[in-house]
Design a protein that fits this description.
The protein has helices at 7-22, 69-73, 76-98; strands at residues 26-28, 36-38, 44-45. By secondary structure, it is mainly α. Strands 1-2-3 form a three-stranded antiparallel sheet, covered by helices on one side. The longest helix has 23 residues, at 76-98.
Length: 99
């Protein structure tokens, strides 16, 4: 899909960020990219090369069911913050236009 480019590595690193963000381990399995195990702390192990045909077995721990703050709230805090700032700016602009 990506061929011999950096996109496969980028997707792997983005998976690492997602694992840390949600505090869950991730097994990334691909047809032609980089297959790997990513721990909940973002450590990447057991990687394969591009277009490598292999079978891997990863020991994935079963974690207690809890969710990170980001998993619970998502992007809502930043959306709410932006909305409040926009409202404040609108009121200030309106106040300046009246005076």
């Amino acid at each position: 899909w990506f061929g011999e480019s950096y996109e496969s590595l980028q997707h792997l690193l983005l998976g690492s960020l997602r694992a840390v963000e949600l505090r869950i381990p991730i097994v990334r399995a691909t047809n032609s990219g980089i297959t790997a195990y990513i721990s909940a702390t973002g450590e990447v192990s057991g990687t394969t090369g591009l277009f490598e045909r292999t079978n891997r077995i990863y020991a994935v721990p079963v974690l207690p069911r809890w969710r990170s703050v980001y998993a619970l709230c998502g992007n809502w805090p930043i959306v709410l913050f932006c909305a409040v700032v926009a409202i404040i700016l609108l009121f200030r602009m309106q106040h300046q236009l009246r005076h």
